[in-house]
Design brief:
The protein has 233 residues and is mainly alpha-helical. The chain is 76% helix and 4% strand. A three-stranded mixed sheet has the order 2-1-3.
């Protein structure tokens, strides 16, 4: 006699194995780098580079203004001393000092603009740093959860394989081979229950002969419509 009940139990275990494997693959695919985290890192690096460039410009302007101020101090010293210079020479020197001062004021205005941009970039870097830290914290927590879930699923899978082996050992080889073939071509469902005279695999009504054959249990009964092995409780 073919133990159809055990064959049905084997199918239930196999379906659970399939589902657990799928869940495990899904968990594994989420372990590792995160797209949002990578993007946040890229944005922070870009903001830091902009800040570094602006700070370099700021320092360059500050040095240039310092050089101009030194030059003004030297020229003004000549102007105030006025030794050996006639009024025209002094006037020309004064004009030169005024031009240099105008250039310094222009540089100072430009420097002020750069400094404002530096302050804005500092704020942007700080905001992006905070966001990155939050994302990293969330990511690490999620990775711990996923790793724990992976271990749990792997343990479940091992237990299911043990159960499958125990059940399969009680079923003859020919029946197992028929079952495996049908599982392959029937989307994992080789065995179908009979309920209210219908095959629950294809939902079609069964001839009385198919139902009687399944009920007798003397040999494998298959649905004349979908070919699945019939199981009656």
């Amino acid at each position: 006699m073919n133990n159809i009940r055990q064959l049905y139990e084997l199918q239930e275990v196999d379906l659970e194995i399939d589902q657990t494997k799928q869940s495990l693959e899904n968990v594994k695919s989420q372990i590792g780098e995160d797209d949002e985290l990578q993007e946040a890192n890229i944005l922070l690096d870009a903001a830091r580079k902009r800040l570094a460039d602006l700070e370099q410009q700021q320092h360059s302007y500050e040095r240039e203004i310092e050089d101009i101020s030194s030059k003004i101090a030297k020229e003004e010293k000549k102007l105030y001393e006025g030794t050996g210079k006639n009024p025209k020479e002094l006037l020309d020197l004064q004009k030169e000092v005024d031009l240099i001062k105008d250039r310094r004021r222009a540089k100072e205005d430009e420097l002020l603009g750069i400094m404002e941009r530096v302050d804005a970039e500092h704020q942007d870097v700080n905001q992006k740093s905070i966001k990155l830290q939050e994302l990293e914290k969330q990511w690490k927590g999620r990775q711990r959860e996923l790793t724990s879930e992976q271990k749990s699923l792997e343990a479940d899978l091992e237990s299911l394989h043990t159960s499958r082996k125990t059940i399969a050992q009680q079923i003859d080889g020919d029946t197992i081979r028929t079952y495996e073939h049908l599982r392959l071509i029937k989307n994992g469902r080789a065995v179908a229950k009979i309920e209210q005279g219908r095959c629950m695999g294809c939902r079609m009504s069964l001839p009385i002969s198919d139902q009687q054959k399944a009920r007798s249990g003397k040999e494998l009964a298959t649905c004349s419509n979908c070919g699945r092995i019939l199981h009656i409780t």
